[in-house]
Amino acid sequence: MKSLPQTSYLSDYLAPAQIIFGLKAKDKIQALEELLDVLAKQKLIKNKKLLLTRIIDRERLESTAIGHNVALPHARVDTGGDIAVAVGKSSAGIDFEAVDDKKVHVIILIVWNPSLPGLFNHLFAGLARFLRKDDFRRRLFAANNRTELYNVLSEVELRLPREDRIISRASLLKKLQTIEIKMRKAKGIQLKQLKEQAKLIREELDRALLDRYDRLMQRYGFAVAEMEDGVCQGCNINVATGMRSAIEGSNDIFICENCGKFLVASKKKKNK
Ligand SMILES: [Zn+2]
Q: Which CATH architecture has domain 8-160?
């Protein structure tokens, strides 16, 4: 397994030729195909058909639209290289079934090599972190041409998330838990399908995160607890005020200071 460089930037993996400033696509599939064509033309990928299938399988599991009009469709396939990135901008916007129901205007498609499992985490965390900055998003959407868009994206630094919080992965980890709990009672075809879904999610989560998750699952039978009305449902203890407000309405994963389980925002709507 190769080791990752200490600091890297999105621009290490992105050239202006990998950016389509005006996507012609009207829907998600067309957009994915348009972006894969760019990667094929740059000789960064080989099997476009297989990649499209993998990316769509991943989208079915959970939309990769991460809010703020941005989507990060991805697949883990041996590309021959380390990672292949293509970016598309659509002025009309494309429906990606985003959690915030907003159309997607910037699509960053990522294909990464199984021999470099950490690279995707760095990339995902770096992008999610940058996209939270109002100033960065303003400049991203204000770019007037391909060069300007490339310059803004070049600022994105790839880095691992801080230990006390895992950015934008809460719903995915929760989904993994739901699937693996269902697997305990599933049989035959259903079990096979659940196993495939779990594998897909596991492939893109950080190793250290999964180790911790597996230890918790073994010990307690579950690893991810929701916070409801400021109380960790894993241990029934109040969450500290500062953390409580950070968790509410966020898709980040925190760690309960009391029971050590992963703590995520509750999906339930609060009364009033
Ligand atoms: Zn707890």
A: 3-Layer(aba) Sandwich (3.40)
CB atoms within 10 A of CB 135: 8
pLDDT at 235: 95
Architecture of the domain whose range is 170-265: Orthogonal Bundle (1.10)
How far does the centroid of ligand 1 lie from the alpha carbon of residue 235, in Å?
4
Residues with CB in 5 Å of ion ligand 1: 232, 234-235, 256, 258-259
Dihedral sign for Cα atoms in the order 77, 127, 252, 6 = positive
Whether residue 7 is predicted with pLDDT greater than 50 in this model: the reply is yes
SS3 19: strand
Q: State the distance from the centre of ligand 1 to the C-alpha of 195, rounded, in angstroms.
A: 28
* Chain segment 72-85, per-residue pLDDT in tens: 999 988 777 778 99
3-state secondary structure of 226: strand
CA of 44 to the centre of ligand 1 (A): 45
Q: Where in the chain are the domains?
A: 8-160, 170-265
pLDDT at 39 (0 to 100): 95
Report CA(196)–ligand 1 centroid distance (Å). Answer: 30
> Does residue 98 register a pLDDT over 90?
no
- Calpha distance 171→12 (Å, rounded): 29
